[in-house]
Amino acid sequence: MRRAGPTEADIGILQGNLARAVHSVVPIGASLAALALALLGACGPALGHTGSEHAGSLAAGFAHPWTGLDHLLALLAVGLWAGLIGGRALWAWPAAFVSAMLAGGVLGIAGAQLPLVEPGMLASLVVLGLLVLTAARLPIALGAALVALFAVLHGHAHGAELPGGATATAYAVGFALATALLHAIGIGIACASRNAIGTLIVRVGGAAVAAVGVALAVI
After folding, report:
1. CA-CA distance, 219 to 212, in Å (whole number)?
2. How many CA atoms lie within 13 A of 27 on its CB side?
3. What is the pLDDT of residue 97?
4. Which residues touch 164 (CB under 8 Å, ≥6 apart)?
5. By CB neighbour count within 10 A (0-12 exposed, 13-18 middle, 19+ buried), where does 75 fall?
6. What is the pLDDT of residue 3?
7. Domain enclosing residue 166, as ranges
8. Structural contact between residues 170 and 125, judged by C-beta atoms closer than 8 angstroms
9. Is residue 176 part of a domain?
10. What's the 3-state SS for the chain?
């Protein structure tokens, strides 16, 4: 038997559902933008990465990723992206980020110079935010290489800020644990938002991350 096509009533129902989805997402998107601007204003001084306010302990290392908006949003974005894609990305991309971040931290502690660390960290917000926005399905290895590249820059900034005479190992363990936790939070948010509206909200969040990256680059 030949299946009948959609009726006018079916089309009307679909249009109504779409309208309700758009109306529910627009206020959320505006709220995210407002929140991003508020965070940008509140956390601006923490973006300088001077290192003078950090002590070399596990607790200080754990606190550090939460005090810089660029670090915080980049780490959350990795988790959001991995959560959207699922599968091996759930563990491969966070593991690649944490490992490369520790390697970058060692370089920073050793005093090795890397080019464009600060611009690269801001670029990571834009790129990772766009990857979340588009839910880009890159090959696992390519995604891991991309997040590892950004992680080296974030790790170098952590390591370069370590005060002289501080305990480097405890500090590194602290920021690695905080990084893993922020990844887990991002993954949890994405995995808890598996329906169409939830996924759309997560992707709008990616747009907000990218927008903050652009804003930080021009101020």
Report:
1. 11
2. 4
3. 98
4. none
5. buried
6. 46
7. 91-219
8. no
9. yes
10. CCCCCCCHHHHHHHHHHHHHHHHHHHHHHHHHHHHHHHHHHHHHHHHCCCCCCCCCCHHHHHHHHHHCHHHHHHHHHHHHHHHHHCCCHHHHHHHHHHHHHHHHHHHHHHCCCCCCHHHHHHHHHHHHHHHHHHCCCCCHHHHHHHHHHHHHHHHHHHHHCCCCCCCHHHHHHHHHHHHHHHHHHHHHHHHCCCCHHHHHHHHHHHHHHHHHHHHHHHC
Q: Select the more confidently predicted residue: 145 or 52.
A: 145
Q: Which of 86, 65, 85, 87 is nearest to 76 (CA)?
A: 65
Examine residue 48 and state whether it is found in any structural domain, yes or no. Answer: no
Q: What is the pTM of this model?
A: 0.75
CA 160 – CA 106 distance, rounded (Å): 9
Residue 204, in any domain of the structure: yes
Nearest C-alpha neighbor of 134 from the set 60, 47, 204 = 204
d(CA 147, CA 165): 31
Confidence of residue 46 (pLDDT cuts 50, 70, 90): very low
Query: What's the N-to-C CA distance of the chain in angstroms?
Result: 64
Number of domains forming the structure of the chain: 1
Compute the distance between CA of residue 91 and CA of residue 33 in angstroms, rounded to an integer. 29
In a domain, 201, yes or no: yes
